[in-house]
Recover the amino acids of this structure.
């Protein structure tokens, strides 16, 4: 499982910039960022190199932040690649709450991030032949904190 | 019951006692206190009533009257008959001074003995009085009542929490009297000291002097393993001993043979029917030192209709739900923002920090309550946050009896202030009117 930062943001000009600047000043490097928004507020989800340090920096800047566990899976870079992954989960009745993708330099495929409530997700993906990422594939967990 | 002949007196008889005492009081203050003579004369009111309902025509007393007559101007007894004074803390202005005759002190001890007995205490109990002793009425008020009831009384006063815990544990204390928030600090400190407060003989908490919620009661009762009893009083009327919960814990019995209570609509200042919320107004029926006539407490409560299972005939008021200073009127409904806090403490995922923003949509008042999400964001899915928003909206709307909108805002984004938080922002007069 990977650690993802989830941050509550009100829809105000400059809030997302402030969030990114706070992480930047703390020396935290982002890999991926996704915003889920409603009319009034948004939830920003971030994969970064040092999630615990990022959480501490955001907390002390006053953000509402939590660390969520998500599944990161390497997806072959070809048409239908992501569909294959999701079908594998669907066949086993694993429901996906949300998903987004990013490219990690040095990997042959894209990385798909999946929020699932089902503990079987990693197992299902691995038995279907996919590479499920470990924290050390993206960051050095011991360096964090 | 400490004084069953008074506490369970038939209502008809009680009302006759009240009427007799009220007339004696009106005559006495008219005779002895220039302020009352002036007020009555200005209003064209005689210091006599035919029925208790006639009291509605008698002028009010407010805190400013006491300030203006500082320190002794409202005393109705000779200075040489006053044996003690107390004073209010004066958080909102100049301190106010109250005086007691020997008989006042005697009655007060009786009323506090009633309060402790009402909470379930008896002469076998060991009472730790952790209210402050001094000008504040809390410490000495509880102290005299505890002795009157025959309890072993520990006058430890407030502060030095580690010593409080030590005494609580070493002296086999069974009753703790302090503010509700301090009881939680005591529990926390005990745990830090490696003492499980639930393992102590402590069985009753007598808590007052600040507003607290039902949720807080549950928390205190669980952490300390006690029954937590709400008591009510204010120095201008007496100090503690004006009203207290019994073991049924469903409202505070008002000591009506000593204090005449009225609940008034804060706008019209006319009495509301039993069960309706309004401003609590007291007339002291027996006090000699500094009696008050129709003293406006600014506290909001309501009479709980019906008879209590404990057998007392004294009517009950609900725990204080707010202050008239905080009251807002929305679409004709009186709304007390403090009720919102109580709702929020019971909902996971939000912090009990809020701000009420009043606006207008056409001719209609709108209410938007801004609520901070908890700093350790409990949900990261939009639909769960939206569900949280709906829960908060539903629960606040049902507590206030007014439909509202809820906006979730970021942690610590609502301004904090050292003193009174600015809970209400009223944009109704400034927006596109």
């Amino acid at each position: 499982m990977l650690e993802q930062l989830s941050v509550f943001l009100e829809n105000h000009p400059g809030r997302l910039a402030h969030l990114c600047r706070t992480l930047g000043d703390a020396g935290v490097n982002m890999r991926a960022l996704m915003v889920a928004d409603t009319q009034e507020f948004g939830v920003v989800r971030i994969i970064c190199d040092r999630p615990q340090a990022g959480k501490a920096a955001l907390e002390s800047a006053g953000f509402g932040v939590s660390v969520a566990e998500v599944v990161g899976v390497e997806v072959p870079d070809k048409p239908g690649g992501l569909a294959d992954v999701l079908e594998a989960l669907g066949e086993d009745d694993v429901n996906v709450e949300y998903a987004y993708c990013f490219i990690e330099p040095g990997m042959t495929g894209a990385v798909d991030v999946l929020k699932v409530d089902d503990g079987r997700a990693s197992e299902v993906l691995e038995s279907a032949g996919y590479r499920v990422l470990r924290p050390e594939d993206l960051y050095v967990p011991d360096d964090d904190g | 019951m400490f004084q069953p002949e008074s506490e369970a007196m038939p209502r008809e008889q009680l009302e006759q006692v009240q009427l007799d005492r009220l007339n004696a009081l009106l005559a006495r203050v008219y005779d002895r206190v220039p302020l009352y003579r002036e007020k009555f004369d200005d209003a064209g009111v005689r210091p006599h009533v035919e029925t208790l309902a006639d009291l509605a025509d008698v002028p009010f007393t407010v805190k400013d009257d006491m300030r203006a007559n500082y320190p002794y101007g409202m005393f109705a007894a000779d200075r040489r008959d006053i044996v003690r004074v107390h004073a209010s803390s004066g958080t909102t202005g100049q301190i106010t001074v109250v005086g007691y005759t020997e008989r006042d002190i005697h009655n007060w001890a009786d009323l506090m003995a009633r309060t402790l007995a009402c909470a379930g205490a008896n002469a076998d109990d060991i009472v730790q009085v952790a209210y402050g002793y001094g000008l504040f009425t809390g410490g000495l008020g509880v102290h005299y009542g505890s002795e009157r009831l025959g309890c072993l009384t520990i006058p430890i006063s407030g502060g030095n929490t580690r010593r409080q815990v030590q005494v609580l544990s070493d002296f086999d204390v069974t009753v703790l009297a302090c503010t509700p928030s301090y009881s939680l600090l005591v529990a926390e400190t005990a745990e830090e000291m490696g003492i499980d407060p639930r393992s102590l003989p402590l069985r009753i908490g007598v808590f007052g002097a600040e507003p607290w919620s039902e949720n807080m009661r549950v928390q205190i009762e669980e952490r300390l393993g006690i029954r937590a009893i709400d008591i009510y009083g204010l120095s201008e009327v007496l100090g503690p001993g004006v009203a207290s919960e019994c073991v049924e814990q469903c409202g505070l019995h008002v000591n009506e043979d000593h204090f005449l209570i009225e609940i008034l609509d804060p706008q019209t200042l006319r009495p509301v029917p039993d069960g309706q919320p309004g401003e609590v107004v007291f007339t002291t029926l027996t006090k000699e030192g500094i009696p008050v006539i129709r003293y406006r407490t600014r506290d909001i409560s309501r009479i709980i209709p019906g008879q209590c299972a404990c057998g007392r005939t004294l009517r009950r008021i609900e725990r204080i739900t707010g202050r008239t200073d905080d009251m807002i009127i929305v679409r004709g409904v009186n709304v007390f923002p403090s009720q919102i806090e109580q709702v929020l403490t019971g909902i996971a995922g939000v912090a009990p920090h809020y701000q009420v923003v009043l606006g207008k949509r056409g001719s209609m008042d709108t209410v938007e309550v801004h609520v901070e999400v908890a700093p350790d964001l409990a949900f990261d899915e939009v639909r769960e946050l939206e569900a949280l928003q709906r829960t908060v909206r539903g629960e606040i709307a049902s507590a206030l009896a007014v439909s509202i909108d809820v906006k979730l805002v970021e942690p610590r984004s609502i301004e904090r202030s050292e003193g009174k938080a600015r809970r209400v922002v009223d944009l109704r007069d400034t927006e596109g009117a």
Remarks:
- The mean pLDDT of chain A is 91.
- Residues 16 and 139 of chain A are 23 Å apart (CA to CA).
